[in-house]
Design a protein that fits this description.
Layout: H1 2-20, H2 38-44, H3 50-60, E1 83-111, H4 118-125, E2 134-167, E3 173-183, E4 186-196, E5 206-208, E6 213-223, H5 224-229, H6 233-241
Parallel strand pairs: 1-5
Antiparallel strand pairs: 1-2, 2-3, 3-4, 4-6
Amino acid sequence: MHTTLKIAGFAVLGLTVACARADHIGSTPDFTAAQDASEARAMIDPGLPIVLLERRAADAASLWSPSRASLLGDRRAVMRGDILTVVIEIDESAEISNSTDRSRSGSENLSLPGLFGIPQRLDEKLPEGASSAELVGINSQSSSSGDGSVKRNEKLELRVAATVIDVLPNGVLSISGSQELRVNFELRELLVTGFVRPADISRQNEITYDKIASARVSYGGRGQISDMQQPRIGQQVLDAVLPF
């Protein structure tokens, strides 16, 4: 009974993994529907701050209108549904090296030349050449050494348009951006989310990734090449459960 359940479990797991890759078996991987993204929902229902509603009547009669559509208007993203450009330029390197060396030696001796005549009586019963004068002698020595090093070099230059999906009560903007590029049978995905201050957005309506709080940047892909680079599901399960 238990064996049957295990076989059924592995079968269900295999079917689940197969269904996840079914969209690009023998064909190119499908794009994610843009209409279902949070960015699209923010653009459809951007909302309108009360302050803008109060100023709309006054702006209509002004020669120098401060509206965003005017010549001198501020076109930076400030409200839900606005779009800004996220500039990702990562050029980092790190190198860590350490080593340890430890050694220890010890020696212990225990002798019993006389104790109420017991050693003398004990020597009579011991084999020839044996004596209880030196009962125990222990010598120990241990040593260990270790070396470790970490070397990392990363460089990434990307630009992606992100959408303001929410404006927090303190004025901070919650942004989310996605970009998909399909080349032959491989789909590259770029995802960016985080929180930005309107003051950190440049006049060109751009912001660098180091000014995004809780930044989450994901750059990967899916398709035939990515599938070949991933170990099979059975191998992943064995790597997780085998203790050696």
